[in-house]
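Input record, target 12 of the design panel.
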């Protein structure tokens, strides 16, 4: 008998709709995870850059604060030194005035002695020079010593201020 035998090729199993949905959702989730990973790496890189910039800004701010502190200390030192100068100048002015006054008193004694001498009283002129003249000359010497000391203090204060600048 010749019967023809037909052999049928096996058919592929049918996919269920639930299986297709699960595979599709899984694919979408895998793509989403890859995208989220890429975004996360970018965010991590951005955060790392931000931390680097923040650390750099903190370092610069600390350095700036140190410089500002040094400037403030220098300003305070200069202020203290400049506040000393008017006192020294006032003291110097007083010492100069005292010196001029002592000099004028000595000149007054010399002029009185010259008047005595010119009127013929050489003994009186000599006595006036030895008494009042010597006293006024000693006053001038003492005043001059104070003036020199005051001038040295004023010079030292001025030099100190110039060094601070």
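The sequence produced for target 12 reads:
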């Amino acid at each position: 008998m010749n019967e023809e035998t037909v052999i049928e090729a096996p058919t592929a199993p049918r996919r269920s709709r639930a299986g297709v949905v699960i595979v599709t959702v899984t694919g979408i989730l895998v793509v989403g995870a890859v995208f989220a990973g890429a975004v996360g790496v970018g965010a991590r890189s951005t955060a790392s850059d931000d931390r680097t910039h923040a650390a750099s800004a903190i370092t610069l701010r600390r350095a700036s604060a140190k410089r500002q502190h040094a400037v403030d200390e220098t300003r305070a030192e200069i202020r203290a030194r400049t506040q000393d100068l008017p006192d020294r100048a006032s003291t110097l002015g007083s010492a100069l005035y005292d010196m001029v006054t002592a000099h004028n008193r000595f000149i007054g004694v010399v002029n009185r002695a010259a008047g005595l001498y010119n009127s013929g009283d050489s003994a009186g002129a000599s006595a006036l020079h030895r008494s009042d003249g010597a006293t006024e000359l000693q006053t001038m010497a003492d005043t001059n010593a104070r003036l020199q000391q005051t001038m040295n203090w004023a010079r030292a204060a001025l030099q100190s201020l110039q060094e601070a600048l």
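Residues 58 and 64 are 10 Å apart (CA to CA).
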